[in-house]
């Protein structure tokens, strides 16, 4: 079948009305649906990782954050590749192949979660392959930019990016629903520990029984459990008992500290300890789930959409070699646009990846702790919806003002998170405000994502091929957001149990990016009003 269109000139009204419009909107429809699945498969590890400890995977907190960070790392590199392949291979070939190749992580992760002996490195490799879904964006969006006239670019790009971003919410919303559905393979027993009931178990267990149970554990497990206790508590108790014996140290801890240390241990290990302390306790909760279904359900949709893409998509005849496309890097505005898009989409993607684990590790120790997956999908949903809605607004008022508003919103959200102690919580009473501020930041990132993609075709109006390249490049760098957020947040939590330092950094970056946007693209008399 013919791949390349003979002619494409969307700015010609006669061409557009005689058939160009139909082709453009058909292409947008197909690529947007495939992009939605791309984002969903890209972020599926962020929701699956939350459930792994409860199945018996003995991964540390740092390893879990690595699993949510790696997809961002791979997507960033793959987006750089996607930035340059569209003018070489065309929309039809790129979209069809990119859709089909996502079967690798979908099927691989499905089988990996069914065996608790699957090593961490296998999960790390599979997490890297989920980046296939994140990489697509840097060829899909430039493709859409080329298919539409200038007057509709903001609308078309806003629709595609917004609905595509909904894929993050799809992954986080569908996962809890399909966990009870057996698509393939047997169910696994998922174990969770109730912190409040764990305190009751220790209150009713004698010190002698606690010594007996804890001393039966090997030294490595004892060390891991004690690592869940705050350093100042360990130091205080060690000084008091004048002993570094782990069994004596553990049994001398305050009841709440012991309960918290066990509740934060691997759930399967915690189950064994609590059952030894008090058989039939109510602190241990078990249920059967099909975690593999959270990956397998994508497969039929990916197969169908790869076939549809091959038979119904065509490519615009705008070929250019990689060397020719490198001219975007000699333009200073490529770098300024990169900074502003890291602020908007980088924050959206980063928060999307880290939000579930932030809930788990910041608020998971408190009584009546929230289920991360109950709240996780709301953020990407709000950010995606605001991106779609403000795509139309950007066509009317320009994108620069929206990007400036976004920067101020992210700055304000970061300040509130730090100054109100929401990312260094002391009680569950802070959780509603924490969620509200994070969701507000998601909302602002959607506004900024709509604004930036309206700006770039105007900033590079003299060369639409360059404009498409810049869209791909900026998206590639911003795709490192999940890696940056997950790793730095994970490091902060491991070091001191808070995320204050990270959001202070976010605030300073928002000031930098907003200043650049305002000076070059937003203020009166600026160089490139957009």
From TrEMBL:
Pfam families: MgtE_N
Protein's cellular compartments: Membrane
Gene Ontology CC terms, in alphabetical order: membrane
Keywords on record: Membrane, Transmembrane, Transmembrane helix
Annotated ranges, domain Magnesium transporter MgtE intracellular: 186-274
Claim: Metal-binding is one of the keywords in the record: no
TM region positions: 23-44, 64-82, 94-114, 120-141, 162-187, 295-313, 334-355, 375-393, 400-419, 431-450, 470-490, 502-521
GO molecular function: nitrate transmembrane transporter activity
Gene3D superfamilies with a match to the protein in the record: MFS general substrate transporter like domains
Membrane topology, as annotated: Multi-pass membrane protein
Protein name stated in the entry: Magnesium transporter MgtE intracellular domain-containing protein
Lineage: Bacteria, Pseudomonadati, Bacteroidota, Flavobacteriia, Flavobacteriales
